[in-house]
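Hey,
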Amino acid sequence: WPPPPWACGWRRRCAPRPMARLRQAWQPSTAHCGSASLLATRFLVECDEEGATATVRRYRAEGRRIPGLGHKVYRAVDPRFELLIPAVRTLAGQDRDGRQRLAVLDDVLGEVGRTIPHQPNIDLALGALGWIAGLHGELPLFAVARIAGWAAHYAEAAPVVGTASGAGAPVWVP
C-alpha cells in the first residue's frame, strides 16, 4: 500500500538529513513541542515554594493555564499519566527530598482536583519525574519517545527494495 500522506511529507523533509532532525529533537523546547513538562516542573517548584493552594489560586487569578492539566484527546485522566505516576511514587520514596516533593505533588493534585475540571496529563507526570529525580530542568524526556516515533515513521515511509539475504527484515534505501 502507499504510505499515508503525512509519512511521505515527513520523509521528504527529514530523509535528506535524518541525523540533523534527531539533533534538533535535543534542542531547547518550544511552546508547542515538548516544553509542557518543563512548564509543569516549574509549576511544581513554585508550588513547593509558595504552597499548592496559593500557587493554583495565583495562576487562576492571573488567567494562566496550569501546566500538566487537560488534554485535547484524553478528556478523562491521561492513561499515560496513570502509568507513569506509580513509578514516580516509587522513585520518590527512596529519599527524604523525594518524599517531600511527592507531598507537594499530592497537594497539587488535591488542589486542582477540588478547583479545576481538567485532569492531569503526561506532562505533569514527566515534570514530576524530572523534578523528583533531580534531573536537569531542560532535559527533554519527551524526545526519547519522539525519536522512536520519528524512526518508525521514516521506516514506514521508506520504499522497500528487497530483503536482506532474501529473507528477514526489509532493507530500506534512504
